[in-house]
Design a protein that fits this description.
The chain is built from two helices and 43 strands. By secondary structure, it is mainly beta. The protein folds into four domains: about 190 residues, no CATH class; about 180 residues, no CATH class; about 90 residues, Immunoglobulins (Immunoglobulin-like), CATH 2.60.40.10; about 70 residues, Immunoglobulin-like (Sandwich), CATH 2.60.40.
Length: about 575
């Protein structure tokens, strides 16, 4: 049975005590409180990068030394009925000059903008005033102002809100709780001179949106329309942050998600001490299978740790469950066949605060809605089935974070193949590319232990090409034993990526272990003499006689992962190489 938990998550940070002066910052006093139910109140202030610079409850007075810039105050009420008379104020500590004040009129959360020092660090910010009139039924009205990085402001009606905005494209999201439009309520965003830069209303229905420019050409700001992708083959490519519409659209023409508890839709329980394969102890996966679904493909243009949030910063208005799979041309067949396991999923614990992948739960969110970040590689694709369990009609913002980069831009280079093989003159590497875009050069790197890498040669690339090109390099002085190779592919602007790792064994004595690396089971080849294997402490863990080695390649079992030394001696010469055993 689903239920809601009201919670506040406060992320603390060090603030400067009164009287402390830091370079390029000014002391501000933040005062919160004075309402009927201050114990319900919490808040935090974040800078332009989304970092929390101050936080607290009510009543409270906090002093913080802050650089000039645009800041956002996130306001929360645990009961969900607004602050009941409590207010916030931000003033210059030394002079008492008020630079911002306001309240949370109703609801469980809201955001306010505060300009400190007259602008933002980019130098392109100006003050704007959002005016939302009451109309006939103001309690039905709420709205969000959204730009690429996320939610700029949220509110109800009537309201007049000053905010500090940078240049760019903005989307005004309009909501009506009763579903009959705003009934005369309107919104207008005015610049500092009083001129309107955007205005409108919600004529009918429960949701609408309008996109408009601030300081950029209108052609740059195409309106974000709805996404309709109820089946896996219709999945929409996601290349950047996006806002998409959802409604009770059913399951499309087919129900692709396997039954709960299956290989492709496993069952996990919240807090039972049995973590999922990706490391959380949350509920999952899709307990109601596919429901009001939207399918989307996420494209990774640069590897790293992938993070994302559906419905962040107080925009989530229902349960946004989701499941995520690796994506290829066969995925849409593999999922309904129950032969594809997910890489992550979440059955929301609460219906607010957002959901997704995060190393740190976002402010206002709940840990039960977030899974650990996913390690991804350049060129990877993943498909997400987003399930609108609550059957709401709304706009969902999807924002990406972490160190991975999501983009559909062509990769600087498309590597078709990379091989390394032993020849009489050394170890020969050959590779081919299907295309190159502004590629500068290749660095051939070698390692003996997969940890320390050295560049042994540099080859100039074609620069830009859309035909197949072949390259070759001979390592004439390989390491005695196993050699690991990879390509460092460097772009004209200095960015780089790495190829998969290849290996080849070189030994003048003809001694080697295979396979290498291995999981503890391998064979040793040595034409003659005694073979000895030693662990990292120099202790002998295996030894064979000359007669045993000469007859056949003996099989060896090692149970402890680690790096071992394989040595062979015929009485006159001694050769060594390394063996890697992993779990």
């Amino acid at each position: 049975m689903r239920f809601a938990i009201i919670a506040s998550i406060i992320i603390g940070c060090a603030v400067a005590p009164s009287g402390t002066v830091r370079a390029q910052c000014t002391n501000y006093t933040i005062t919160v409180g004075g309402g009927l139910y201050d114990f319900e109140v919490s808040w935090n202030m974040v800078n332009e990068l989304g970092a929390v610079v101050a936080s607290g409850f009510a009543p409270t007075t906090v002093t913080a030394c802050l650089p000039d810039g645009c800041y956002q105050l996130n306001l929360y009420d645990s009961f969900g009925d607004g602050w009941n008379g409590a207010t916030y104020s931000v003033a210059v500590t030394a002079t008492g000059v008020l630079v911002g004040s306001g309240t949370l009129a109703n609801g469980s959360s809201g955001t306010m903008q505060v300009s400190l020092g007259g602008g933002c660090s980019s130098g392109d910010c100006d003050m704007y005033t959002m005016v939302v009139t009451a109309g006939l039924y103001p309690t039905e009205v709420n709205w969000n102002l959204v730009t690429g990085p996320g939610i700029v402001a949220t509110g109800f009606a009537p309201t007049t809100l000053m905010m500090c905005l940078d240049t760019g494209c903005y989307t005004m999201q309009l909501f009506d709780a009763f579903g009959d439009g705003w009934n005369g309520a309107t919104w207008t965003l005015n610049n500092a001179g009083g001129a309107s830069v955007g205005s409108g209303t919600l004529g009918t229905g429960s949701i609408g949106q309008a996109t408009f420019p601030i300081g950029v050409p209108a052609a740059n700001c195409a309106s974000a329309g709805p996404i309709t992708a109820s089946d896996c083959p219709e999945a929409v490519n996601i290349c950047t942050n996006i806002n998409f519409s959802i409604d009770p659209n059913g399951i499309g023409s087919m129900n692709e998600i396997p039954s709960v508890g299956s290989y492709g839709n496993p069952l996990f329980y919240y807090g039972d001490g049995s973590p999922s394969p990706w490391g959380s102890d949350n509920e999952g996966c899709l307990l109601n299978n596919e429901l009001n679904s939207t399918w989307m493909v996420v494209n990774i243009s640069q590897g790293g740790m992938l993070e994302f949030t559906f419905g962040g910063l107080s925009t989530q208005v229902g349960f946004y469950d989701w499941i995520m799979y690796p994506y290829s041309s066969s995925t849409c067949s593999a999922i309904p066949a129950n032969t594809q396991a997910p890489v992550s999923c979440n059955w929301n614990w609460v219906s607010y605060g957002g959901t997704g992948l995060a190393s740190t739960v976002p402010s206002g969110g709940d840990a039960g809605n977030f899974e650990p970040p996913l390690a991804v590689q350049t060129g990877d694709q993943y498909i997400i089935c987003f399930s609108n369990w609550s059957s709401v009609s709304t706009v969902v913002p999807l924002q990406f974070g972490g160190t991975a980069v999501v983009s559909c831009e062509p990769l600087p280079i498309e590597l078709l193949a990379f091989h390394a093989k032993r020849t009489e003159g050394g170890i020969l590497m050959d590779w081919s590319t299907a295309s190159e875009k502004n590629t500068s050069h290749f660095v051939v790197q070698r390692s003996a232990d997969l940890m320390e890498w050295e560049g042994i040669s540099e080859l100039r690339a074609a620069g830009s090409s859309y035909t197949t090109l072949a390259y070759r390099y001979l390592d004439a002085e390989p390491i005695d034993g196993v050699n690991y190779y990879r390509l460092q592919m460097v772009d004209m602007d200095g960015t780089m990526e790495f190829s998969p790792i290849e290996q080849a064994t070189w030994s003048l004595s003809g001694m080697f272990a295979y396979p290498n690396p291995n999981r503890g089971a391998f064979q040793v080849h040595a034409p003659s003499g005694e073979v000895e294997i030693m662990d990292a402490m120099g202790r002998t863990v295996y030894r064979s006689s000359a007669s045993t080695v000469g007859n056949a390649d003996p099989s060896v079992q090692l149970t402890t992962p680690g790096i071992y030394t394989l040595a062979s001696s015929d009485g006159a010469d001694r050769a060594t190489t390394r063996i890697v055993v992993f779990e």
